[in-house]
Amino acid sequence: MRTLEILLTFLTFIMLFQHKMPRKFAAAAGFAGIGVLAGQLFFEGYRWQMVLIYLVSVAFAFIAIFGKRLYMRMWKPLKYGLYGLTFTMLAVSIFLSVYLPVFDLPKPDGAYSVGTKTFHLTDQSREETLTKNPHDKRELMVQVWYPAQGLNGQKQAPLFPEDASTFHEYIERYADRFSFPAFALDYWRYIKTNSYENATISSAEARYPVVVISHGFGTSRLLHASQAEHLVSHGFVAVAIDHTYSTMATAFPDGRVTGLTTEQYLNEGSENRNKLGDIWTQDADFVIDQLDQLNRDAFEGKLDMDNIGMMGHSFGGATAFNAAYSNHRIKAGINMDGSLNNVNDKQAISKPFLFMESSNFMNIKNKALSGKISDEEIKNSGLTKEEFNEMIEERKKEYKIIDQASMVYIAGTEHYNFTDLQLYSKVLKQVGMTGDIDGERSADIVNRYVLDFFNKHLKETGGGLISKPNPAYPEVEFPKE
Predict the structure, then answer these.
(1) 142 - beta bridge partners?
(2) I need a surface site. Which of 256, 305, 417, 423 has the fewest CB within 10 A?
(3) Contact at 8 Å (CB) between 405 and 357?
């Protein structure tokens, strides 16, 4: 809970016992409660999780200021019933406020401040095959985070779009996905980043290595913002792509907001999945080519285009692998808890590449590859036995082409522990989207191992974390040979 929310809740509890106070103290508590409520709404902003506390605080402030004697003469059973109802209302509101919190992205611990710019790019050489209009070209929104300087007077950027109509379209699409009413996610507008829009790029270094980020299917570049900020604070430039029509929502400068319309590509066999994977890989290649021009026009030549890495989560992890495999400009890559696409006819990758896996994924994969998985576990995976056996054959092919790659897995994690989604709510742990590990701890571990990998392969420093187990991070395990 935010500071004024906590203070308002505290004063509301005090006003519950106003009948034990002198009249003047009760009235003072009532006025203080009204004042804090007004301040909270003005400075921090309304959110629906606090509605019950708002109602109770106003009611008890009114009684404290104007109606204490009437309140004292209330019939005892009614009074105690109201006490019970009031405590229940406060408890519900506190629970919702704590488990669906307003939060800021974790503060990165590197030496650099973080600037950010967003670009609308159109690949005129590629027809858009994911829409019905044959004249459409492939359009992408790309966000760049970079080391910044001269931030005096600038405000930290919100995570989601500030424009009210665009923001509401965003949360409607996310809410539909999770079967929530749209208002349930309205409080996301208060999430603050550590980035400053359109800040001047830092002159502290001649050039900064570049890391391209590809999100998972049906999520967004916004779910990797803290990972980007952490890299940038340590002297990298991070470039995150929204893969249009495969995000939950992508907003374009002309007001359009596209949604998720490519689900059939993942549900109609490996051929269609590979087609979508090719589109995403082409997106990455196009963005890297466009960075040459952006480097000249927007970043004063500070991007080190000779040292480019790529990372991704889930389907984006597969994209990072394919792009690293085929694009000579990418020197190293990371796949976070993703399988691979288009594995036929590939040889073992010859570049530094790291697979970061969830512990649940590793457990299931090891059982499956050893033939020790039960029919019930196969059923729980959501696949038929035939689909599961096909997947295992794909995994065996994958092992041949990742022979040179490194691998770690993080105990207690699930699939979305490799995104910022783990910071949004502890409820995600209850529904199995994130694991038993604390979300902030997991985010910190992922950030540190990603940084160590790219330090080693793009800056030729570090590398200690990814080479062997470290007692400071006992959750990180290296698969046995």
Answers:
(1) 119, 241
(2) 256
(3) no
pLDDT in tens, the chain (481 residues): 999 999 999 999 888 877 777 878 888 888 999 999 999 999 999 999 999 999 999 988 888 887 655 555 555 676 677 778 888 999 999 999 999 999 999 999 999 999 999 999 999 999 999 999 989 999 999 999 999 998 877 888 999 999 999 999 999 998 888 888 889 999 999 999 999 999 999 999 999 999 999 999 999 999 999 999 999 999 999 999 999 999 999 999 999 999 999 988 876 666 788 899 999 999 999 999 999 999 999 999 999 999 999 999 999 999 999 999 999 999 999 999 988 887 777 777 889 999 999 876 666 666 666 666 666 665 555 555 565 565 556 655 665 666 567 889 899 999 999 999 999 998 888 888 899 999 999 999 999 999 999 999 999 999 999 999 999 999 999 886 5
CA atoms of 478 and 481, how far apart (whole Å): 9
> pTM (2 decimals)?
0.90
CA distance 433 to 413: 9
Question: How far is 307 from 331, CA to CA, in rounded Å?
Answer: 7
**What distances in angstroms separate CA 226 from CA 142, 156, 264, 423, one per listed residue?**
16, 13, 30, 10
Cβ atoms of residues 146 and 116 within 8 Å: yes
Q: What is the dihedral of CA 276, 320, 114, 148, to 10 degrees?
A: -110
52, containing H or E segment = helix 51-66
Which residue from 299, 49, 337, 368 is spatially nearest to 217, judged by alpha carbons?
337
Q: What structural domains does the chain harbor?
A: 3-99 (no CATH), 113-157+192-477 (3.40.50.1820)
Residue 103 to residue 426: CA distance in whole angstroms: 12
Q: Please, is 119 exposed, middle or buried when counting C-beta atoms within 10 Å of its C-beta (0-12, 13-18, 19+)? A: middle
- For residues 445 and 470, what is the distance between their CA atoms, to the nearest angstrom? 11
Question: Tokens at residue 130, please?
Answer: 């994911």
The CA distance from 226 to 191, in Å, is 12
Helix axes 23-39, 3-16, angle to 10 degrees: 150
Q: Which residues contact 96 (CB under 8 A, 6 or more apart)?
A: 49
User: At a CB cut-off of 8 Å and minimum separation 6, what does 5 contact?
Assistant: 40, 44, 50, 53, 97
Q: CA angle, 327 as apex, 344 and 283 as ends, to 5°?
A: 90
Say how far apart CA 14 and CA 31 lie, in whole Å. Answer: 12
What type of residue sits at position 116? T
Residues 6+ apart with CB under 8 A from 111: 233, 234, 235
Q: Is 444 helix (H, G, I), strand (E, B) or coil?
A: helix
